Amino acid sequence: MAGLSKKMAGFAQGVLPVNPVEGEHVRWSVEDRLAHYNCPGVSVCVIENGDIADAAGFGVVTPNGRTVDADTIFAGASISKPVTAILALQLVEQGRLSLDAPVNEYLKSWKLPENAFTREVPVTLRHLLSHRAGTTVHGFGAYPRDRQVPTLLDVLNGTPPSPTPAVVVDKLPGISVRYSGGGTQLVQLLLEEATGLNFADLAAQRVFEPLGMRRTTFRQPLPSELEPYAAIGHHADGRQVNGRFTFTPQLAAGGIYTSGPDYARFMIECRNAWLGKRNVLIGQAMAREMMSGQGGGQFGLGWEIFGRGADTRFAHGGSNEGYQCNTLCNLEKGWGGVVLTNSLSGIILYYELLNGLADAYGWQGYMRPPRKVRKLGPEEQAKYVGRYKIVSGLEAPYLDVWIQDGQLYSRVEGLILPARPVYMDVSGRFFTQQTPGETKFIHDDTGKAIGLIAYAQGDIEVFRAERSGDPGA
């Protein structure tokens, strides 16, 4: 393809399923998958041997608009959180914050409300950066542009005009992972009070400017001077989001706008710190702490950590109104990539694109072997049908499993992922074609499923659920 490197041209025609199935040889073009998911455009950036090796854009910033290029800006949503973590760890290195002291010792204008949980185990910065603080408020999404903007204290207190409730602790800190954008906003307050700078200025001075990330900002709404370079956000049905560009005033948790190469520069510098190379972020000891799973969960400090040994990689995704993205980088081998899309439907597409990049660029240790599917008869399928109450790991109420046209389907209530067919492989675990994780069901003596454990890539537990009735009950 004109203008693309040989490998990128191969990727453009070689997108792969999230979970390839043995005996099925399926490949799609990027153009086909954009049309399939009703996603206008995507930008990808490839890291090889710890450096930017390739980047390209596909599709358009909006239907009938200009084409996406390698440097197009997208809303990054939760890929903001590793940047927030770096800013916090810089202050830890300087002795201005501690990872393990109670955060209320540092907070001035607002304190995390004390209760029986926090009196037993005070919340620390380590808890917050690894989503083990027991804090509430999973995420925020976009905010209406025609409403008064909530202050950071409004968000933490849950007072108008904040659309989300107060950030509180409602489980014992340090026990388990529960993803919490609310906890990340508490980190923003820590940083702003410790430095006297607003968060957007702090990130610009300490990360974006030193790394030459000229198309990256935490300023919200997106500054007018950057709008000509940005992809417009879209709903799954193709409508543009209100105001064209999503507005997220909760900066530390999800306010970043960035390009593929810019965010790749940030990831490369995090890896350089882990290797002990000269960098502008943090020292090696702190970087090693950052890239270590905390308490057995999937999170280090800011980053998600997957794999073991030479296959260990750090990663983070982002989900917001009109935009979906994902990022990853192998620590030892130095390969990785950034995928940015401008549609809500990109939440499934980006996994397929990452598989295509892994295949085209030879990411050793990334691709999962093809699944061997075990077909289930109606009686066996019926043992899994039910509503399962989520009891840990995920701020969502239920997972439903039902039979539709002879196929098992599942959906987590409250998540944006659609209902999806689920399959059992010969190991007895279930998987889907939408995400790379898998699910293990727990059975009673009769073989009926009474609970489940959902895993991320590998055996990192994401959430647990227990049977509570019929689906949709």
Structural account:
With 473 residues, the protein is α+β, with helices and mostly antiparallel strands. It has two domains: 76-361, DD-peptidase/beta-lactamase superfamily (Beta-lactamase), CATH 3.40.710.10; 373-469, Lipocalin (Beta Barrel), CATH 2.40.128.50. The chain is 25% helix and 22% strand. The protein contains 13 helices and 18 strands. It has helices at residues 6-12, 30-36, 80-93, 116-120, 125-129, 152-157, 181-195, 199-208, 251-254, 260-275, 284-290, 346-361, 378-382; strands at residues 41-48, 51-59, 73-77, 256-259, 304-306, 313-320, 323-330, 336-341, 373-374, 386-392, 398-404, 407-412, 420-421, 423-425, 430-431, 438-443, 449-455, 461-469. The chain has a seven-stranded antiparallel β-sheet, with no helix packed on it. Strand 10 and strand 11 form a beta hairpin. Helix 3 (80-93) crosses helix 7 (181-195). It is globular. The chain starts with 5 loop residues before the first helix and ends with a strand. The relative contact order is 0.15. The model has no long low-confidence stretch (mean pLDDT 95).
Number of strands: 18
CATH architecture of the largest domain: 3-Layer(aba) Sandwich
How are the strands ordered across the major sheet?
13-12-11-10-18-17-16
What is the mean pLDDT? 95
Overall domain count: 2
Structural class: alpha+beta
CATH class value of the largest domain: Alpha Beta
| Spans where pLDDT lies below 50 across 5 or more residues | none
What's the shape?
Answer: globular
- Rg, rounded, reads 22 Å
In DSSP terms (H or I, runs of 4 or more residues), the helix count works out at 13
